[in-house]
Amino acid sequence: MIKVLIAEDIALFRDGLKTIIEQDQEIKVIGCACNGKEAVEQCIKHVPDIVLMDIKMPVLNGIEATRLIKETNSSIRVLILTTFYEDDDMSKAFEFGADGYVLKDLEQDELITTIKNIVKGLNVFHRRVVDNVRKQYHSKKETGVASEKSGAEFNLTERELDIIRLIIEGKKNKEICELLFITEGSVKNITSKILRKLNLEDRTQLAIFAVKNGLI
Q1: pTM > 0.85: yes or no
Q2: Count of beta carbons in the 10 Å neighbourhood of residue 23
Q3: DSSP state of 155
Q4: Which of these three, 75, 98, 125, is where a domain ends?
Q5: Cα 61 to Cα 53: distance, rounded to the nearest angstrom
C-alpha cells in the first residue's frame, strides 16, 4: 500500500485529490496538510511514501517544505503538483531534491501512474525542468567555459564522465550502452558506482551536481 500525504491549502482541491487517488486500491491517503509547516510535521509523524506538494501555501511554501522534508528523511518522495509554471520554482524544487514536478492539469490516470512511478524510484519532471539543465550544459559547452573541477578531483574515470554527459543529454540506459559499446547492465552498474562516489541518490541529483561543478 502506497501511503500518501497531500499538502494543499485549497480545501476543495485537496479533497478532490484525496477522492481521485484513493480510487486506486494500492494507494491510501494517510494525512492532509494545509501549509508547508504542517506537511513537514506530518511527515515526521506519519512517514508517508510520497507527498503531493503544492507550492503556493501560507506559513511555509512547498519548495521550502520539500527542502526540510528531504533533510529530515530523504527516503520520503516529494511530487510537486502545481498550477504555476515558473522556472525559478522548478529549479529550486530540482535543487532541493523533489522527485517530480508536474502541473495540476494532468489527467487522473496520469496522476496515479506518476505517483506509482515515483514511489518505485523514478523521477518525473515536466520537460521544461530537464530542458533547463540541458541549456546550462550546452551553454557551457558552446562557450568553452573551463570546468571549475575535473573528474579526477571526484575520483571519476573518463568512462564515468562519458556516462554523466549522456545522462544529462537525456539518454536512456539502452541508448548509452549503444553509444559506448557496453552492455546495459554495465551502464547500470557504472551509474550506481558514480552515485555512491558522489554521495547522490539519483540521476536528477547527478545532473544538478555535474552542472554546478563543471563536470560536463
Answers
A1: no
A2: 9
A3: T
A4: 125
A5: 9
